[in-house]
Write a structure and sequence with these properties.
There is one protein chain. The chain has 17 helices and 13 strands. α13 packs across α14.
């Protein structure tokens, strides 16, 4: 529990030293004192990875079920291993994890942990959460795993938590906590104070959220009753469930190895303008202005730009998009899956504005 809260072996070691907790002192058969000193990071790593505490035995690199009882719940053991795996790449990965809000909390429907990684293109860094076996280069069976843009899933979690913390009375009722009217004002204030840090700190978030499971049709966010109870300052009932699940109606759409998150209305979970599409709109208007003056032909423009005349024609069509479609492009609220490539395909843009809206805008049908 201490490691899950702090998320870092070094911090655990420092805290244990501060509290005077170290390796137990024992005397060998030769009368030599052993232990009685602070636990090293290597020792702590060994303890955290030792499967014996989860009821298993490791032998020659293979883990077997043991005959002894586990002293740590399997779910907690899995969370510890997921967080250790996220940090296993050393300092470089640690920097990624420190900026990844959901480290150690994210799983797919098969209980496979997702770990934070990053990729760099030119000078831009992109963050993702990737199935752990993909990151380690071992793909078991026919499983494909997933690769989710970090900002998208983090945005969904932030939105759901903001909604939950904005109505403590409803959350308390869902968790089986009893609060009185006199307590409500203070609880509201406590939630408002705790929320900003919770939305940017992995350690703070892990005190409230125990697991986030990404399913094909929704995202399940499991809140720890103990964390909610502590935040509210209200004791939990012995009959209450240990977790409360909040489900976000977000489905998955796959493009290659990358999974995008889309709301039921077809809008992407993360509303942001597609830079390539915005550039195409600007280019379309610029080219049309040149052509409209009659000083250049499509063929000459194509030669100048180093593209085909057909491509010029397809791009220029974007200068005649319905105004509300242009607004949706700039606001990032276009129907999911619409990008610069799809917009310049042959026949992609109808002349009729209503047909354009049905094709490109979410929530619009014929």
């Amino acid at each position: 529990a201490r490691y899950l809260e702090l998320g870092n072996v070094r911090l655990v070691a420092e805290q244990l030293v501060a509290e005077g907790i170290g390796a137990p002192l024992r005397v060998s058969s030769k009368g030599q004192a052993i232990g009685g000193c602070p636990l090293t990071r290597g020792q702590l790593n060994y303890i955290l990875k030792n499967p014996i505490y989860a009821g298993n035995i490791a032998h020659k690199g293979t883990v077997h079920p043991g005959n002894h009882d586990a002293i740590i719940e399997r779910e907690k053991w899995d969370r510890v291993q997921a967080r250790l795996a996220a940090n296993v790449q050393g300092e470089r990965s640690a920097r990624v994890s420190s900026t990844s809000l959901l480290t150690g909390l994210l799983y797919d429907a098969d209980r496979e942990p997702l770990v934070p990684v990053h990729a760099r293109k030119a000078k831009t860094q992109y963050r993702y959460y990737v199935s752990r076996f993909l990151q380690h280069g071992t793909e078991p069976g026919a499983r494909t795993g997933m690769r989710i843009p970090a900002r998208e899933i983090e945005q969904v979690v932030r939105q759901e938590l903001t909604s939950l913390m904005g109505d403590p009375l409803l959350l308390a009722h869902a968790c089986g906590l009893v609060i009185t009217p006199e307590m409500l004002a203070q609880i509201n204030q406590d939630c408002a104070n705790a929320l900003p840090e919770m939305l940017r700190s992995n350690a703070k978030l892990a005190g409230i959220v125990s697991r986030i499971t990404i399913r094909t049709d929704r995202i399940d966010i499991e809140l720890a009753l103990a964390g909610i109870s502590k935040l509210f300052g209200v004791p939990a009932s012995h009959h209450s469930e240990q977790t409360f699940t909040q489900s976000a109606s977000v489905r998955l759409t796959r493009t290659g190895h990358v999974v995008r998150l889309v709301h039921d209305n077809g809008v992407a979970a993360l509303k942001q303008a597609d830079p390539s599409l915005v550039r195409l709109i600007l280019k379309a208007r610029h080219w049309w202005n040149e052509l409209a003056k009659g000083e250049i032909t499509i063929q000459i423009l194509a030669v100048r730009e180093g593209v085909s005349a057909s491509y010029i024609t397809r791009v220029v069509r974007l200068a005649f998009l319905a105004p509300d479609i242009v607004e949706a492009i700039l606001a990032g609220t276009m129907r999911a899956g619409i990008d610069g490539v799809t917009m310049v395909r042959t026949g992609a843009v109808p002349e009729d504005w209503d047909k354009q809206r049905m094709r490109f805008l979410s929530g619009v049908s014929g």
